[in-house]
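PROTOCOL LOG
Step 1. Enter all chains and additional molecules of the complex.
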Amino acid sequence: MIDYVTDPLSYPFMQRALIEVAIVGALCGLVGCFVVLRGLAFIADALAHAVFPGVVLSYMAERNILIGASVFGVLTAIGVGVLSRSRRVSEDSAIGVLFAASFAFGVVLISMQSGFRKDLGSLLFGNILGVSQQDVVITLVVGVVVAGVLLALLKEFTLVAFDTTMAKAAGYPVFALDVLLLLLVSATIVVSLQTVGNILILALIVTPPATARLLTDRLGRMMLLSALLAVTSGVVGLYISFHASTAAGATIVLTATAIFLVALVVAPNHGFISGRVQRRRGQHHVHHYHPMSEEGPASEG
Amino acid sequence: MTPRHPPHAVGDLALHDVSVAYGSLVAVSAVEAVIEPGTVVGVIGPNGSGKSTLLKAIAGVLPLHGGEVTLGGEEIGRHAAEVAFVPQREEVNWEFPVTARDVVLMGRYRTIGWLRRPGDRDRERAEQALARLGLAGMGYRHISQFSGGQQQRIFLARAMVQEPRIVLLDEPFTGVDVTNRAIFHEAIREFAAKGVTVLLATHDLEEVQSTTDAVLCLNRDMVAFGPTATTYTAETLRATFGGQLAVFAAP
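Step 2. Run joint prediction.
Step 3. Record the structure below.
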């Protein structure tokens, strides 16, 4: 039984992979909280797709994929910030069109290479077993910086996410904070690409925080829990993939999903079971205000 | 900067030829008012008359299309930390994991400053403000677990701990019952007594006479501004509300 745990550790590539997945998990879990709480899942997905040509270009130039991905990541984060500032109704569509195109461009680029199918696979779905020591160090450094900025500005990010109107009235640079948050998300995506790849990165950013939100009503606990769950999903998923010989990135994502489903059923306040019990008792944990509730209708003119 | 209009007494909130636009559509214009500290001003007008827009422009949430807003002769943007804003319900993210105390603490953020965490004193202040508004011992609850009136009180508590010079309340009475209104009136009076200027946008005309010292009547253009006693007349209301006046009880 113990072999199940220790066996993989005798391989250096598994040691590196486990460390990498733990760092990436903690980072995605933390940053993902704000993605989930601000409803940025679509934008995070768009960012992941938009950095793809950068990944391909670095790959073709035989450079570290982080270089190209970072350049595209910064550009797209700022681009999304500007697009959402204009507050047009069509901003969603604009982001969708641009980033689908960007992704397709990346695919076309790599299809011009010979033997592209294998490369495409590892770029799209990640290659966690192939991370080098240098990759791990870069991930750690970026992770510490991103988490540091997020925690240092936690109260400002909280205020903007909860009540943008007050944040603006109180004189906070809301646009700059929004772009900074997108840059943090972008950096997180870029360093996580090797773990689960372009297509599945969204799951690591969204699923653990969504699970954590089901389990707590406090931001601090949610962030801690989310990071723990993401690390757990990463490590457990990697072990399962090692023993079952399944694709690592996808197995990690499915592990995170399994934890989410369990939380969905058993969560104390927001879960399926507690919801049924409370409905039967004729009450619900969360009192959602409605203008026609017991306090009487508002005098609408 | 030098104001283009005569300087006012220290602390006056002055709106000079203020207009606000969404793109090319001018939503509010010709607003002219000088408000002394400690005055409670009702901003009234029919739906879509620009009440909320005007409050947001004063707060710097929306840019001015023309004119200027000054506090004590200085551009109001320089006093942003002293402007408390209680937004309409729809503008707040109720699903965000914050407790009532967390929300009140947000009023302290500018005082606390960047990169610092709220301290014991800030938390103490938050608890006191909650207690002052009848929510003692409930600070640990998630914000969505309160009734509409209680939620509005939490936002008032947040405004209190900010120690503002200007408080802007955007439709504060929406969905607030009689008990909550009494607490509200008391809190607004307390602000005024401390010399804080309160502007409240409302279409609830019953509140205007009992709560305000002055009214600013708005229907895209400013219709009238003056003391409630002399300005809040059937004639002004007709000019402000036009055909919609029948909906409300005339004073």
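Step 4. Note key features.
Chain A touches chain B at residues 37-38, 152-153, 155-156, 158-159, 161-166, 168-171, 213, 216-219, 222, 285-289, 291, 293-301 (CB under 8 Å).
Confidence is low (pLDDT under 50) at residues 283-301 of chain A.
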